[in-house]
Design goal:
- The structure is a homodimer.
- The first copy, chain A, has about 375 residues and is an alpha/beta fold.
- Chain A has a single domain, classed as TIM Barrel (Alpha-Beta Barrel).
- Helix content of chain A is about 50%, strand content about 10%.
- The first copy, chain A, is built from 17 helices and eleven strands.
- Chain A has a seven-stranded parallel beta sheet. Chain A has a two-stranded antiparallel sheet with strand order 2-3.
- The longest helix of chain A has 25 residues.
- The interface between A and B is large, with 39 and 39 residues.
C-alpha cells in the first residue's frame, strides 16, 4: 500500500490539530456531476455502477479529480446488506430504493441470516481494493453501511416512507420480531464493515437515515443500542492505523449526548443542529462532522462562501471538526457551487487557525 | 354563548392545576373514523367537507361523541389562507395538498395580498359559529392556521416535498422574495386567527409542519420571527377569557428554548422530544402539548395504555401539560386504540395527582 499523503481527515476524526478543516461531502460522487451521469448512462443504472467494481472505482474518484476533497467515500448503496440477504434491492425510475421481498411474516424473519461478505458482497470488497489502489494514498477511503435500524426500516416497509407505518406497526405490536431483525442486521453490518476494513477502508461510517423517526426512548432501544453492538464487533485497524468510526443519524440532533457517549469517534450532524450548541453538548468526547444545508449549493458562489464561513465560525477552529453537508448532495447542486464551497473551507479554515482570536484582539492595550 | 362546562384545556394551557391531564388529538376528526369516511363519501371530498360549514361542524363533533376529549378543533385545512389568496388549493387522489398556481415569479409574489377573512374565508368563520353553538359549552373550540413559513413552503413548492428544493432555492438565492411572502402571510394569518377568535375560537394553534426543514439560524429568521409577528397582532380574548396560543413546529425539538421564549402560551412537541428533557429546558415559561408517537395507535390496547402512562410519567403530574399525539392521527389508527388512550390518560393522570410521590414514599420512616 502507498503511504497516505493527506491524512487530515483521520487526524481531525481523532481530534488532533490540523492545518485546515478537512472536507468531504456525503454523496459527493453523484448526479450533480455530468461525468457521473455519462458513466451511469453507459452502465445502464445506479445498481450496475455500484455492482461493477471498476465502474464503482471510477465513479468514486470523479469528484476528487474536480475538487480538493480530503476523503474518498466508497461508491455503493446503504442497502447492500439486505440485498445480499436475498430481499432483492431495486430502484423504480425516479424513486428511492425498494425491496422485491420485504419482511412481512415471522417465518421469513426467523430465517434471516447475516451474509458472508466475501461470498455475497465480494463486488463491494473488490471495489474497495481497486479504489485504494487507484487513490495511491492521495486521501483516505471511507467505507460505510446503513445502520441496523435503517436497514430494518427498508426491509420491513419495503421502501422509504414519510412515516413507515408497517415498520411502526411491528415496533409496537411485535417488538420481539423487530429486535430479532436488528440483531441479525447488527451482526451482518459488523461482518460487512470488518470486510471493508480488511479490504482497505481507512474509516467507516454508519448511515442511520431513519433513526430520527423514533421517539427518544425508541432511538436508544431500536437504533443506538444496535449501532453500539456493531461498533463493539469492529476490528478497527488498517495499515497499522486506527480506523475511526462515524455515526450519522438524520434527525438525531436532540440525542447528541447519547450518541457522543456511544463510543463512536465522530458524530455526523444534519443541518438542523446548531454547531455551537453541538460543541457544548458533545464536549471533547467526539469529533463532529457536518453540517451545511445541502440546499446552500443552489445559491450563487458568494452566498455559498458566506454560509461556509458561518458554519466554520460556529464550530470554531478547534480540533475535531470535519466539514460536510448535513445530508447528501442533491442532483440540483451545481459543480461550481461545490468548487466554491471546497475552496472556501480550505482557505478560510486555514486563516482561522492563524487569526488572533477576536476576543483577545479586542482587549485594549493587550498587544 | 353557553358557559364553558369543561375548561380543563384552558386551565392547563395557562399552567393552572387541573384534576387530570386534558387530552385532544391532532386530526381527531379524520379517516380513522368510519362515520367520518361515510360523511366524506357523501360530500364527495375533503375540501367539500371543509368548505361546507354544516358538514365541517358535524365532522368536528364526531370524535367528541365517541371519546371523552377535552377540546374540539375546527375541521379545516392548514392551507385555507393561500387558497383564499387565489393559489387554488386541491388534493390529488391519495396525495397531500397542492396548489394550481404556486408562486414562481416575482410579479406574482409582489401582487400577493392578505385576504379579508370575512369575505374570502367566511365559510370557516361560519363553521366556527356553528361548532360553538353545537358544542353548547361542552369543551372549548381550538381554531388554527398553518404558520407563515409552512404556508410559504407549500405556496412556493406547490406541494409537500421531502426537501423543498424550489423553496430552498428561493431561500438561498432570493431571501428578499421569501421574506416578502412571509410578511404577507404573517399579516394574513393574524387577520384570519383574529376572525376565528371573534367568531368564537377559544384557543388558537399555529401548525408549523415544515419549520423543521430549516437550519437553526434559518428557523429563527424564516419561521419563528413570523410566528411571533402573528402572535403580536392577535386580539386574544373570547367570552371575557384569554385565548391561549399554541405553537407546534414538527421537527423543532432542538429549538425548544427559542420557542419557549417566543411569547406563545404553549409549545406542541413531536414524538421525538424527550418529555422530561423538554420540561427541564422549557422551564415554567410555557405549557407543553404532546407527544405520543401516533404509531402507538397501531398497538393492542394494553400497549397503548402502557405507552400513555410512560408519557404521563415523563411529563410528571405538574401543571401545564396537555396530552396529545406528536403529530396527526393517521387513517390506520383504530378507534378502539383511541378509546383506550383517552380512557387511560384520564384515569391515570387523575390517579397521579393523588399518589404519594415515589421519592417521598421511598424514605424509610417518613410516614
Amino acid at each position: 500500500m502507498s503511504p497516505l499523503y493527506n491524512d487530515t481527515l483521520l487526524r481531525a476524526l481523532a481530534r488532533e490539530p490540523t492545518e485546515y478543516t478537512p472536507i468531504w461531502l456525503m454523496r459527493q460522487a453523484g448526479r450533480y456531476l455530468p461525468e457521473y451521469n455519462a458513466l451511469r448512462a453507459r452502465a445502464g443504472s445506479f445498481l450496475a455502477l455500484a455492482k461493477t467494481p471498476a465502474l464503482a472505482c471510477e465513479v468514486t474518484l470523479q469528484p476528487l479529480e474536480r475538487f480538493q476533497l480530503d476523503a474518498a467515500i466508497l461508491f455503493s448503496d446503504i442497502l447492500t446488506v439486505p440485498d445480499a440477504m436475498g430481499l432483492g434491492l431495486f430502484f423504480a425510475a425516479g424513486e428511492g430504493p425498494r425491496f422485491e421481498r420485504p419482511l412481512r411474516d415471522e417465518t421469513a424473519i426467523r430465517r434471516l441470516a447475516a451474509p458472508d461478505p466475501s461470498a455475497e458482497l465480494g463486488y463491494v470488497l473488490e471495489a474497495v481494493r481497486q479504489i485504494r489502489s487507484a487513490l495511491g494514498g492521495r486521501v483516505p477511503l471511507i467505507g460505510f453501511s446503513g445502520s441496523p435500524y435503517t436497514l430494518a426500516c427498508y426491509m420491513v416497509e419495503g421502501s422509504g416512507s414519510s412515516d413507515f407505518p408497517v415498520l411502526k406497526t411491528m415496533l409496537y405490536q411485535r417488538p420481539d420480531l423487530l429486535h430479532h431483525i436488528l440483531e441479525v442486521n447488527a451482526q451482518a453490518v459488523a461482518h460487512y464493515l470488518n470486510a471493508q476494513i480488511a479490504a482497505g477502508a481507512q474509516a467507516v461510517m454508519l448511515f442511520d437515515t431513519w433513526g430520527g423517526n423514533l421517539s427518544a426512548a425508541g432511538y436508544e432501544e431500536f437504533s443506538l443500542a444496535y449501532a453500539r453492538r456493531v461498533l463493539r464487533e469492529l476490528r478497527r485497524e488498517c495499515d497499522g492505523r486506527k480506523v475511526p468510526a462515524i455515526l450519522f443519524t438524520k434527525g438525531g440532533g436532540q440525542w447528541l449526548e447519547a450518541m457522543a457517549s456511544s463510543g463512536f469517534d465522530a458524530i455526523g450532524l444534519d443541518w438542523t443542529v446548531d454547531p455551537g450548541d453541538a460543541r457544548r453538548r458533545a464536549g471533547a468526547r467526539v469529533a463532529l462532522q457536518g453540517n451545511l444545508d445541502p440546499a446552500v449549493l443552489y445559491a450563487p458562489p458568494e452566498r455559498v462562501r458566506a454560509e461556509a464561513r458561518r458554519v466554520l465560525d460556529q464550530f470554531g477552529a478547534l480540533p475535531g471538526h470535519v466539514f460536510n453537508l448535513g445530508h447528501g448532495i442533491t442532483p440540483l447542486a451545481s459543480p461550481e457551487a461545490v468548487a466554491s464551497l471546497v475552496d472556501e473551507v480550505r482557505t478560510y479554515s486555514r486563516a482561522q487557525r492563524h487569526a488572533v482570536p477576536a476576543s483577545r484582539a479586542a482587549i485594549p492595550g493587550s498587544t
